[in-house]
Design a protein that fits this description.
The structure holds 2 protein chains of 2 kinds.
Chain A (H helix, E strand, L loop, with lengths): L2 E3 L4 E5 L4 E3 L2 E3 L4 E8 L5 E7 L5 E3 L5 E5 L4 E6 L8 E9 L7 E2 L3 E6 L1
Chain B lengths: L3 E4 L2 E4 L5 E7 L5 E7 L5 E9 L2 E4 L6 E3 L9 E3 L8 E8 L2 E2 L2 E2 L5 E2 L3 E5 L1
Parallel strand pairs in B: 2-13
Antiparallel strand pairs in B: 1-3, 3-8, 4-5, 4-9, 5-6, 7-8, 9-12, 9-13, 10-11
Classes of the chains: A mainly beta, B mainly beta.
Chain lengths: 114, 118
């Protein structure tokens, strides 16, 4: 069985500071990994995904994430936070080579302070 | 533009009443999913369908029912058996793959329906 753990249900950063949102997974096979963002009363929007190839993945809005197999991690980062980054962020996993549904983490609410 | 349309955006249910949430997609995706979202619990899978006329239970299917008569549509019925239906419901769809990597495609989400009990 696979699972996803997002450390920190709430993270606050100052505008212009580094954003780091943590995601660790457990999976019996190498997984596909996804980060989504959700704004209030909206659906989820894909930020980036890792399926194969380069382990540093760049996404939209200046976000990136690095797949580290040895640490079973896929942390999301952004060098400089903007007020518009305030939202909830979800990490999700699916076993590679599978069309099964995604397993989501419990989410991290990001607050950006002026 | 292609996308997923969920309606209504807000829905109210009386005790003992069944309600149906609509989900329509024009992305030509085979697979469709229903999730329930509660504060602090992330997304939990209710039902999913990988092909027309076929669907499977997810982790929290009790009190819910679905149908998949058309590729574009995957309605969810919240029955009176669901004792705690107040939540935000999200519909998603995805293609199975690009190239040979099965499952490497993300899910695309609608904007959700918020269901409340009167």
């Amino acid at each position: 069985a696979q699972s996803v753990t997002q450390l920190g249900s709430h993270v606050s950063v100052s505008e212009g500071a580094l954003v780091l949102l943590r995601c660790n997974y457990s999976s019996s096979v190498p997984p596909y990994l996804f980060w989504y963002v959700q704004y209030p009363n909206q659906g989820l929007q894909l930020l980036l995904k890792y399926t194969t190839g380069a382990t540093l993945v760049k996404g939209i809005n200046g976000f990136e994430a690095e797949f580290k197999k040895s640490e079973t991690s896929f942390h999301l980062t952004k060098p400089s936070a903007h007020m518009s980054d305030a939202a909830e962020y979800f990490c999700a996993v699916r076993p590679s080579g599978s069309a099964r549904q995604l397993t989501f983490g419990s989410g991290t609410q990001l607050t950006v302070l002026p | 533009d292609g996308g997923i349309t969920q309606s209504p955006k807000y829905l109210f249910r009386k005790e003992g009443q069944n309600v149906t949430l609509s989900c329509e997609q024009n992305l030509n995706h085979d697979a469709m999913y229903w999730y329930r979202q509660d504060p602090g619990q992330g997304l939990r899978l209710i039902y999913y369908s990988q092909i027309v006329n076929d669907f499977q239970k997810g982790d929290i299917a009790e009190g819910y029912s679905v149908s998949r008569e058309k590729k574009e549509s995957f309605p969810l019925t919240v029955t009176s058996a669901q004792k705690n239906p107040t939540a935000f419901y999200l519909c998603a769809s995805s293609p199975p793959r690009t190239g040979t990597l099965l499952g490497n495609q993300p899910q695309h989400f609608g904007d959700g329906t918020r269901l409340s009990i009167l």
